[in-house]
Amino acid sequence: MKRDSRLSGVLHVLLHMAEVEGPLTSEQLAAAMQTNPVVIRRILAGLRDDGLVRSEKGHGGGWTIARDLSTVTLRDVYAAIGSPGIFAMGNRTEAPGCLVEEAVNAAMDDAFAEAESLLLRRLGAVTLAALSADFHARLAQRTSHCDFKDETHAV
């Protein structure tokens, strides 16, 4: 079963956008994401409608983040891409009126609702600023590790 990776992909795009000053074109973002510029434009149009990004046409134009990273949660981005289904699993509905199926589906519905609520709360607690800080911490760790390796090889 194919997984929906749009949220992960658009978060990736947003963090790339946060790393540069000025607008990025759909072509530049598509190259970074190894996809088609049309895919980028389609995804970012939904984010623009929700006020998360803005676009400017013409020479020097492109996409920019419209809000401070600390004010945008992963849940905001999730909602902006249309709140796709969270689970690939679902209930069996081939035997309407079957009491066994009803009991199983009721238990599954409760579990799905609880898990979805937990995930949405977690998405609401993480901001783009937190993702950016995590990226920068990882970059600093990798850079310091590389510097250390370079120094040990020079000895």
List the helices and strands and how they pair.
Layout lengths: L5 H13 L7 H8 L3 H13 L3 E4 L5 E4 L8 H7 L18 H27 L2 H27 L1
Antiparallel strand pairs: 1-2
Helix pairs in contact: 2-3, 4-5
Structure report:
InterPro entries: Tscrpt_reg_Rrf2, WH-like_DNA-bd_sf, WH_DNA-bd_sf. GO terms for molecular function: DNA-binding transcription factor activity. One of its GO terms (cellular component) is cytosol. The chain has a two-stranded antiparallel sheet. By secondary structure, the protein is mainly alpha-helical. The C terminus is likely disordered. The chain folds into 3 domains: 67 residues, Arc Repressor Mutant, subunit A; 41 residues, no CATH class; 27 residues.
Structure in a nutshell:
With 155 residues, the chain is mainly α. It contains six helices and two strands, in the order H-H-H-E-E-H-H-H. It has a two-stranded antiparallel sheet with strand order 1-2.
Features:
61% helix, single chain, elongated, Arc Repressor Mutant, subunit A, disordered C terminus, 5% strand, 155 residues, two-stranded antiparallel sheet, 3 domains, mainly alpha
Strand order, biggest sheet?
A: 1-2
Give helix % range.
55-70%
At the first level of CATH, the class of the largest domain is: Mainly Alpha
Tell me the domain tally: 3
Query: Tally of extended strands?
Result: 2
SS content category? mainly alpha
CATH superfamily of the largest domain: Winged helix-like DNA-binding domain superfamily/Winged helix DNA-binding domain
Mean pLDDT level: 88
